[in-house]
Specification:
Blueprint (H helix, E strand, L loop, with lengths): L1 H13 L3 H10 L5 E2 H12 L3 H13 L3 E4 L2 E4 L1 H18 L3 H8 L4 H4 L9 E3 L4 H10 L4 E6 L4 H12 L3 E6 L4 H15 L3 H8 L2 E5 L4 E6 L3 E8 L2 E2 L2 E4 L2 H17 L1 E2 L7 H12 L2
Helix pairs in contact: 2-3, 8-9, 9-10, 10-13, 11-13
C-alpha cells in the first residue's frame, strides 16, 4: 500500500509544472499562500490553464503533499521532503565530481548522502594550493579540529603541537598504512618544538587517534570551517572549503559517523594511545 502511494506521488511529481507549483507553495513559508495568489502565479508564471491547476491541487491534496486551511495552501511534511529530495538529487547530478565522490557516498547512511549537495556551494581549491591552505587553516585553529587525512608532515605536526599548547584539541582518523609514518612524524615534530618531556606528555593527552581506511580527506576546524576532498582509487577531487553553517554541520556529522565506526589505535600500535604517547615522550631529550 505504501509503495503504491509512493508510485502515485512520484507520478504526480513527474507531470509538467508540478514541482514548480510545490516550490511556489514552499517558498511562501510557514504562512502559506492564498489560493487566488497561487492560481495567479501558476497561470502567469507556469502557463497552466485553470482546469489543470485545480486538478493538480486536488491530486496533491489527496496524496498528502499539500493541505488546505481556509483560503490558504501549505506544504505538508511529505511535500517538503519530496521537494528537498528532488532538489538534492538535482544538485548531485550537477556535481562534476560525482563519480569520484560515489565511493564516499556509498559508505555513509542514506540520510546523510544528500549532504553532498553542499559541496556545490563550497570554494574549490586547486591541488597546487593544498599545502599552503592546510598550514593556514592549522595556524588559525583556536579550539580544535577533527581530521580524516593521510598527511605525514613533521613541520605541520609541530605547528599542531604548538596549537595544542594554546588549548586546541585534535581527533584524527588515520588510514591503516599511515599509522606508523604518522607516529614517526609526530616524534620528529616533538623534537622540532624543543618542548620538554612534561609539556609533550601534556600535549599528547589532547590528541585522540582512531583508524579506518576511507575514500576522503576531511577537516572540521573550530566547528566553523569545513574542508573535504574525495578519493577513489588513484583519482581525487580538488579540495572544497566552506564556512557555511549547514555544510560544516554536515561534515561534522560525517566525521562523527566514521569516528564511531573507526577502530581503536591499539589494534595497530602496541599500547594504543598510551603506547603512542610513551614513544613520543621518550624520544624527546
Amino acid at each position: 500500500m505504501e509503495f503504491d502511494r509512493l508510485v502515485s506521488v512520484l507520478k504526480e511529481a513527474s507531470l509538467p509544472k508540478r514541482i514548480e507549483m510545490l516550490e511556489i507553495i514552499r517558498d511562501s513559508g510557514e504562512n502559506g499562500i492564498e489560493h487566488s495568489k497561487l492560481n495567479e502565479l501558476v497561470k502567469n508564471g507556469l502557463g497552466l490553464p485553470p482546469s489543470t491547476f485545480y486538478r493538480s491541487l486536488n491530486n496533491m491534496f489527496s496524496l498528502g503533499l499539500i493541505r488546505k486551511d481556509d483560503d490558504k495552501i501549505y506544504l505538508t511534511p511529505i511535500g517538503t521532503l519530496l521537494i528537498d529530495a528532488i532538489q538534492c538529487i538535482n544538485d548531485l547530478l550537477e556535481f562534476e565530481y560525482l563519480d569520484i565522490a560515489s565511493a564516499f557516498v556509498l559508505t555513509i547512511p542514506p540520510e546523510m548522502r544528500f549532504g553532498v549537495r553542499y559541496i556545490k556551494e563550497c570554494k574549490k581549491v586547486d591541488i597546487t594550493e593544498t599545502s599552503r591552505l592546510v598550514y593556514d587553516l592549522i595556524a588559525g585553529v583556536e579550539k580544535g579540529g577533527k581530521y580524516i587525512d593521510r598527511i605525514i608532515d613533521p613541520d605541520l605536526y609541530a605547528l599542531m603541537l604548538k596549537k595544542r599548547k594554546e588549548c586546541a584539541t585534535e581527533k584524527v582518523i588515520s588510514s591503516v598504512d599511515t599509522v606508523i609514518p604518522r607516529l614517526n612524524a609526530e616524534i620528529e615534530a616533538a623534537k622540532k618544538t624543543n618542548f620538554d618531556r612534561d609539556t609533550i606528555e601534556e600535549l599528547e593527552e589532547k590528541l585522540e587517534i582512531k583508524v579506518l581506511d576511507l575514500p576522503l580527506q576531511l577537516g572540521v576546524i573550530d566547528e566553523r570551517i569545513g574542508v573535504i576532498m574525495f578519493l577513489k582509487d588513484k583519482y581525487f577531487t580538488p579540495i572544497f572549503i566552506t564556512e557555511d553553517k549547514k555544510a560544516v554541520r554536515w561534515m561534522d556529522s560525517v566525521f562523527d559517523y566514521y569516528w564511531d565506526m573507526a577502530e581503536p589505535l591499539d589494534k595497530y600500535l602496541e599500547g594504543g594511545m598510551e603506547g603512542w604517547k610513551r614513544r613520543v615522550v621518550e624520544a624527546v631529550s
